[in-house]
Write a structure and sequence with these properties.
- There is one protein chain.
- By secondary structure, the chain is an alpha+beta fold.
- It folds into 3 domains: about 5-195, no CATH class; about 225-320, Immunoglobulin-like, CATH 2.60.40; about 335-415, Immunoglobulin-like, CATH 2.60.40.
- About 15% of the residues lie in helices and about 30% in strands.
- It has 5 helices and 24 strands.
- The protein has helices at about 5-25, 40-50, 105-120, 125-140, 170-180, and strands at about 30-35, 55-65, 90-100, 125, 160-165, 185-195, 225-230, 245-250, 255-260, 265-270, 275, 280-285, 295-305, 310, 315-320, 335-340, 355, 360-365, 375-380, 390-395, 395-400, 400-405, 410, 415.
- Strands 1-2-3-6-5-4 form a 6-stranded mixed sheet, with helices on both faces.
- Helix 1 (about 5-25) crosses helix 4 (about 125-140).
- The protein is elongated, with a radius of gyration of 36 Å.
């Protein structure tokens, strides 16, 4: 693949070979000047200068190459961060070859020679590109980029550079030259395809296999896996300090439970309290400090010894709920009220927090540091006509208000009366 200097390198190679062709023909006395600049700048040089023969190579448009645009996808691993392969930026380059002459027929002669060279060299070979890049520092010693193309990679990209004529209608040509703010001169449009640009990001490559150890496993499910994650009391979410049961197979000897919350950048390991082949149990740690796991959704997986090393099972979701069971407010007057609620775990900045009293909801006041006493301002808290249940919602997970461990289920949690 080529580097970001590939566009400049293509123009430099074409300019070098056009100049060599013109000044080697003997027809123009070695006095042809070839530029790769904007047409208005070249027109001014030609008008105010003394050169009789001028040819300009102008890159007027760059478009994505449709055939290469969706190659080598995706470029990252499932974690969204580890780069596996580098997708190339595939481009087609659109040029205008314009001739300037002071006498009759000179511009046409210059354009004819240029067209013939492009026609007879429809493919820029790898050797042509390498030879041109080697000559650039000598031919264009005053250009600061002339010596920078040595490692551009243009000659080594998988696709060779192909030159094909392009067609521009009269209206397109008129609009183009109007935008260029230059007088129209004899011009030939053509395209160079395809330039593959790739930034040299590191890629992940597997290590070579040193030895092969093939075994036969009679079990249809030889690898550890988890099938269910069950919070206690038939609740949809577990609270800190509670035990969680995980079922699966081949879980004997599990060394740790891994909880990951990519949104919050959290990854924490917990040692199981008991393990068996088809299940394990662990307790969510409760420190009652800002270091506690915040409420939310976690990916749960298990690390299990396998052979000489360890393996990690598939992951299943586990919801950790906030707990406000210690909140016991007295009667609350209606109107504009701010309620402060003690909770476990601590609420972290950036979490979406709201308090629901009956069917009246308010979002938390701004949280700038971890706190276990968030406050909520109700602009117009309405009377409830009796006690109603209050629940705290953090990142979509609510504190419990129903005890599902009994039949029939009963309401639990703080009861609030607004008068």
């Amino acid at each position: 693949m080529s580097s970001a200097l590939a566009l400049a390198a293509v123009s430099a190679v074409l300019e070098l070979y056009l100049a060599s062709m013109y000044n080697g023909s003997g027809l123009f006395g070695g006095a042809v000047k070839v530029f790769a600049r904007a047409p208005d700048a070249v027109q001014e040089l030609f008008t105010t200068g003394t050169d009789d023969f001028v040819v300009n190579l102008f890159l007027h448009q760059v478009t994505p190459n449709a055939a290469w645009r969706n190659q080598q996808m995706p470029t990252v691993a499932p974690d969204g961060a580890t780069r596996l392969s580098n997708q190339p930026l595939a481009l087609d380059l659109h040029y205008l070859l314009t001739a300037y002459g002071r006498d009759d027929w000179h511009a046409e002669a210059l354009l004819g020679f240029g067209l013939l060279m492009l026609h007879e060299n429809p493919v820029l070979t790898r050797n042509d590109i390498r030879n041109a890049i080697t000559q650039l520092p000598v031919k264009y010693s005053g250009n600061s980029l002339s010596g920078q193309f040595g490692d551009v990679g243009l000659a080594d990209q998988i696709e060779m550079l192909k030159i094909t004529p392009a067609t521009l209608g009269r209206e397109e040509m008129a609009w183009l030259w109007t935008a260029l703010k230059a007088d129209y001169r004899p011009t030939f449009p053509f395209q160079v395809s395809v330039v593959l640009i790739e930034r040299k990001y590191p890629e992940i490559s597997p290590l070579p296999v040193l030895t092969r150890n093939i075994t036969v496993e009679p079990d249809l499910t030889p690898f550890p896996a988890i099938l269910t994650v069950a919070p206690p009391g038939s609740q949809p979410a577990a609270a800190l300090g509670q035990s969680v049961i995980v079922t699966g197979h081949h879980l004997s000897g599990a060394t740790q439970v891994i909880l990951t919350n990519a949104l919050r950048g959290i990854s924490q390991t917990i040692v199981p309290t008991s393990t068996a082949d088809t299940s394990l149990q662990f307790t969510l740690p409760l420190l009652n400090t800002p270091a506690d796991l915040p409420a939310g959704i976690y990916d749960l997986s298990v690390s299990v010894p396998l052979g000489p090393g360890t393996t990690t099972t598939n992951s299943l979701p586990l919801a950790i709920a906030p707990n406000i069971d210690t909140w016991a407010p007295g009667p609350i007057a209606s109107g504009n009220r701010t309620l402060t609620v003690p909770c476990v775990p601590y609420v972290q900045p950036g979490q979406l927090v709201s308090l629901i009293v009956g069917d009246q909801q308010a979002t938390a006041d701004p949280i700038t540091a971890a706190t276990n006493t968030p406050s909520f301002t109700y602009p117009s808290l309405q009377p409830t006509g009796g006690p109603v249940r209050a629940r705290l919602r953090i990142d979509g997970i609510e504190s419990r208000i129903v005890n599902r461990a009994v039949t029939p289920p009963t309401f639990v949690g703080p009861a609030v009366t607004v008068t």
